[in-house]
Each structure stands twice: as structure tokens, then as C-alpha cells.
Amino acid sequence: MLKSSRSRTLDAIDRQMLEILQREGRISASELGKRVSLSVAATHVRMRRLESDGYIKGYMAVVNRERIGYDLLCFIHVSFRLHQPEEMMRFLDEIRRMPEVIECHKVTGEHDCILKVVVKNHHDYERFWNEALTRIPGVARTHTAIVVNEIKSNSPTPVDHGAASDTS
Q: In the beta sheet, which residues pair with residue 113?
């Protein structure tokens, strides 16, 4: 069951709105309201509530990275030397400042973090790896997988239709 920090359960209309907004973030409130059978005012109220409750984190355009010159996408697995909190926080602070890193996930298993990185080409990757990533104190080793063909990305998050309805 999906719940917000205020413990409000999503109803079927909320779920339907989230699905539509993930695919069509620029849809007008009028059109969205038509699709979910609500007035424009009621649609606005629900959208604001979904935003304030934290179900919607924001809106953004999905840019074609290749069209703007970022031809190389890679995933870099990073392992730390030590797992000291200060060292990990410094690493994460450094990563947050690197524009090439478009995602960073702390993970379980053999590695500590997985970075999704975009660079212009192999030379740009080498510069990033040598001058930025490996210079962060605490990085013990890295393993890079270069994406050959991006099959699926920017997919909507599934919205559970099996969750109990909110009757309030």
C-alpha cells in the first residue's frame, strides 16, 4: 500500500494521475481532469496534495544526451578502502558536485556505490576517471561498464493498482 509521510492512502484517481503525469508531465490540468473525470479545480487540489505529500518530487524535461554531445554512458562501480562515515560522506559530497554523475546509488554486495555517468567520449571518460573520481580519498577501486545500447530508460515507476482504496 502506498502511503505518504502523513499516512494518506492513494486512491484509484491519485494512482491514475501519477501514471499519466509520469508519461506526460506537460499535460494541462484541464486535460488531466478530463482523463480522470475531475473538474480542473479538483485536479489542481489533488496535484498540489500529491506534490506536498511527496509523491511527486518534481517535473523536468528528459534531454536527449547524445544530441547535446554526451555520447558515452557508463556505470561505474565504486568500492571504498574503509567504511568510515566521514570518508563516505566526503565521497558523496564530492559526487554530488560532479555534473557528469547523473545518478549515484549506495548498494549492497561487492561494491559500495554505483554511479551512472555521462561523458562526451572516451577521452572525456579518462579525464573524469583520472582527475575526478580516483582522486577522491577513500576510493579503493572502480569497475566501469560502458553502455553499448540503451534499451530502456526513463521509465515510469509502476503505480500499484492493487492497493486498498482510500474512502476519505
A: 78, 106
CATH 1.10.10.10-classified regions of the chain: 1-62
Fold of 72-146: Alpha-Beta Plaits (3.30.70)
Buried b (16+ CB within 10 A) or exposed e, 120-133: beeebbeebbeebb
- Residue whose cell numbers read 528528459: 62
pTM to 2 decimal places? 0.82
Residues 94-125 have pLDDT tens digits of 999 999 999 999 999 999 999 999 999 999 99
* Category of 37 on φ-ψ map: left (φ > 0), alpha (ψ -120 to 50) or beta: left
Domain 1-62 has CATH 1.10.10.10: yes
Written as nine digits, the cell of 107 is 548498494
